[in-house]
Amino acid sequence: MTVVETAIVSGRIDRPVRQRGVIAAAFGLWRARIGAVIVVLLVGVAVFGPFLAPHGATEFVGPPNTNDVPGLLFGTDRLGQDVWSRFLLGGRTILVLAVVSTLIGLFVGMVIGLVAAYDRGRLDNVLMRAMDVVFAFPNLLLALVAVTTLGRRSWVIILIVAFTAVPRVARITRGAALGVVERDFIGAAEALGESRRHILGAEVLPNVAGPLLVEANLRLTYSIALIGALGFLGFGVGLNQPDWAQMINENRAALSTAPWGTLLPIFAIGLLTVGVGLIADGLGRAVAGIDRGRPS
Amino acid sequence: MSERSERTIDTASTRSERTIDTVSTQRHGAGDDGPALTIDGLRIDVTRSGEDIVDEVSLSIGAGEVLGLVGESGSGKTTVGLAVLGHSRKGASISTGRVEIGGYSMLGLSAVQLRLTRGALVSYVPQDPGTALNPALRIGKQLLEVLETHDFGGSDAARRARVDELMAEVLLPGTPQFLRRYPHQLSGGQQQRVGLAMAFACRPSVIVLDEPTTGLDVSTQAHVLDTVRGLCRTHGVAALYVTHDLAVVATLADRVAVMYAGRIVEEGPAAVLFDEPAHPYTRHLIAAVPDMTGDRGITGLPGRAPSPGHRPQGCSFAPRCEAATDECRTAFPSVQLVTIGHTVRCYHPMAPIAIREDLRPMARTIDPGADAALTLRGVSASYSGQTVVHDVNLHVGRGECLALVGESGSGKTTVSRSVGGLHREWTGEILMGSIALARSARDRPVEQRLRIQYVFQNPYSSLNPRRTIGESVGRPLVVGGSSSADARRLVGEMLERVSLTAAYAERYPDQLSGGERQRAAIARALVSKPEVLVCDEVTSALDVLVQAAIVDLLADLQSDLGLAMLFVTHNLPLVRSIADRTAVMADGRIVEVGPTEAVLTRPEQEYTRRLLADTPQINETHPAMTVPTGLHDDPALTVPAVAVPELDV
Amino acid sequence: MGIAKFVVRRLLLGVLTLFIVSIVVFALTQALGDPVRAILGREAQPESVLAKREELGLTRPVLTQYWNWLTGLVTGDPGTSFTNGVPVLDVLGDRIWNSLFLMAISAAVSIPISIAVGTFAAARRDKAFDSASSAGSLVLASMPEFVTGLLLIVLLATNVWQIFPAVVRIRPSEPPWVQPSALVLPVLTLTLGVIPYVSRVMRASMIEVLESDYIEMARLKGLPERTVVWRHALPNAIGPALQVIAINIAYLAGGVIVVENIFNYPGIGLALRDAVTDVNVPVVQFIAMLIAAIYVIVNLLADVGTILVTPRLRTGLR
After folding, report:
1. Nearest CA among B277, B240, B306, B285 for reference residue B53
2. Can you give the pLDDT at residue B22?
3. What is the nearest CA distance from A158 to chain C, expressed in angstroms?
4. Among all residues of chain C, which has the CA nearest to that of A225?
5. Other CB atoms closer than 10 Å to residue C84's CB: what's the count?
6. What is the pLDDT averaged over residues B286-302?
7. What predicted TM-score, i.e. pTM, was given to this entire model?
8. In sequence order, which ranges of B213-296 are alpha helices (DSSP H)?
9. Residue A156 near residue A150 (C-beta atoms within 8 A)
10. Do B210 and B195 fall within a single domain?
11. In a domain, B257, yes or no
12. Taking an 8 Å Cβ-Cβ cutoff, which residues of chain C contact chain B?
């Protein structure tokens, strides 16, 4: 039986120190659980929706902007297409784009943050100043600027969204890594002459996994929001492709009379971002709780 | 005094007969109404589980008297200290008992009443002055604040005069410019003296000091202790001095109470207690404190104190006590009188314990002709261009231990880090045998790196929390090219060697205590069979019993393996137990070098002499009020406080 | 005079940042892609492409184009619109003020509310108000502004209740306060985007300060709770919060883009969308630089403010 020591540090009573993993701890909180349920549901809709759509995306099924057309759940949109089908088909784009761009941004930002934290010298300065420059810009604006001339292509959107994620990820990673890099076990590794890559990858990275996970989640929320905003403004990928954000834009005019074309995607995007946000919140609390549970 | 110096409020009844309805700024004189502070049967629990943190604590302190409350981490001493102010940390609550100051009960008071007493009737000096002073307020303001809140003096002019008075008492300049400083513009010693001034400001009856000299240099510490002693005597203030440092207690306290696992196990006059300790735990504690006169070595004690909820039935010390019998394991011993004023809670007081009588290190024959294992020639080191180490020349013979002693800022850690290849900005030569070492560890060939190993100060940060002990300890072997099977075997052997079992290899660092982690760190350093071992303040973050055990272990390993060891520390008495030779450093230079015995008993340099004089010694109970040696007030020598991480209650 | 030197240094840093931003903006719009192809489409005839290029002044070497543009920006002549040849400033003119007005009102409303909410939540930690505001903040912070805005429209303008107008019918030349009821929803949307962040950081900052050793010490000195909170805690809590407040004010500059498009508010956000659709490069570039400048200035003010509020940094400069 392993001995679990309750350390009394400076009169503060600490909880038993060996904790279950961050993920397990996070999902012990009801907020995160609700978030998880929501996300799973919506991701399910986005992924499996296309297989369940009763009609095609551009199939004409009835008079435009009519609510009660027999056989249709939510009526037609401005082009007479089935709102429900387009809704089921429209989740993939936003999800795929968001996930891919977040992953790219995460990876690049993580590397930059780790290198900067370890260097703590001139390279650190340069990298962080560069990040500051990107910070000097609202993300949506950058995306719009990029889309102006380069067009509304998937790769443009993915790269630009990833680009906006990089500085914040780098900042968070660097912040978390700074605390780790000063610790003596890094010194011990250096004394052994371990390569920089090994130290960053095997020694530092596992110790910043917590905050990084939280940040990854947050970034996903913002990526979805950004791609959604682009779509809403009319700059999503592909014309008339079923896409939740674009649907909002397309059907707005009929909001008072035939709201479902707008409402379904609004709820979907809103719930999705909130769900991911709840998970991020749960993770954040779990990470903070675990860090505080350690003796100095 | 104007009529505004007394304040009256309506009160609900409290447990004792006298209620707090006036808190006057008149002190209770010595002998007035009995002891200044009485604690009786105090019990404090963990709020959530009801487990006791401290129990059956009873003490009393007279006016002008200093009582040292001694214990290691987990003993509950800080919790008791806070309870004197009617305060408990988050998660703890005072459940029964009496705490009375001059007859007023401190427990069961309303928030308003409590506020009136704090600062005026009883005050607190915390451990870390750096965090206890508000960084956004000037120190003059923070001093005045205490006086204003308790309406001391009745007028602004009187209060300002009092501030000047206080600054003079703690030997700080009372100039307006100084008072306008912010806390971060003061050195650690100065910050602590401001803390003392704040505590004594309203002339309280009782003052609780919680390790106020942790992290201060020895000379600053000497001065702070003198100030405390002087202020208590002059103003008749009763002081409860909470600490783990027995040497400090020996020099400062009139009486001592020893705590173990939440209970007071022995209490008595300092001279008597140190001379003839009754409780086995006290005896072990004293045996573990390094003794500078060299009459004895230090002895550790394996195991650790039980935490709340894990305390056994019967005497909590029984599991570790060699004199324990069945009687000890059934019920906690009651209070017994040893002599007048000296009580103990033990079924076998004065039982002999096994301590090391011989002195370490044994005289070793070191071959003078052979190449020194480690040589430093003309080494100067700097940080970003600023030179901090000047022209250091040292050597460590094979199988020899050289202690490198100095206060914070002396450069000793810089030297040791340069040797280990962790600090790159140095010039000169560092030789291992006859081979010159490259500056950075990464530039050194693998075999070289494995032949010189490093043990860090902080056991809580020297092991990767996400790796098992086995992985961390075995890493040097993997780097050196061993197979994983070999590595596993060698790791197991090494863990046994440092008195951990091979099973520890599967555990994670946060499952180990500080002492165990340090042992693991030592195992990691030795697993590749190095020739040179650099130990950087490896016991500073550990309790005294653990420290003794670790030093013991290191000394054993060193002689068994024939290691050359560079032992860096600021704890001067400690070097006696491990070092053949000692080098003293100050301001980046080597001040004195020689056989340990000679340096400690017949120092040649003035600096060494002063350092020795300022170091509190455990066999010097109550020296005459010595004038501090003046190292600390030289503005050129004020250094910012060093935060020595200390696990403590 | 440490502070003055610091301010100057930060200013120079800000200018450098804007310079780099200008390079990025220019690269994305004129150097990396071809505006002419974007305007005319991929099947355009080579002759029309060339003609268009001449017309828009895109035949000169890239660096010259950049230089001309940059100097124009600094001297107050950010070029002419691609679509109708009118100078950019004339096209945007009043819209800039409209947007600034919207931002200002939103900041003035949201910041004080946020500070109050955050402080109150910290003081009544883990009680009803705190939990409720925390949950609310979480939801609001996660949702994109266009979702918030549209939900507000659905709730208050079109489908559930019809209290406020869904669209703003103000001509660019009119001052925006001509139709106050029309401003409510846009301001509300922006405010709801700011409150979650600023109130949370204010709460966190306050809580951390209230748990610190020197606050415990203040209580152990016997100071009344009000003094503890206002004189000891607050000055230490504001510093960290300032940075976030600044970021959020700057965020408003970006937030207006979406909000103006939701509510048809005649500001630069609306103009930007049209400009992007039309590939009206000079307009896009100018709006981008304008917003970037706002960001930089606000962040500079925040940095200076933080220094002034934190004595340790202030004295460290001398």
Report:
1. B306
2. 42
3. 15
4. C144
5. 9
6. 80
7. 0.76
8. 218-235, 246-252, 270-275, 280-288
9. yes
10. no
11. yes
12. 212-215, 217-225, 227, 231-232, 235-236, 310-312, 315
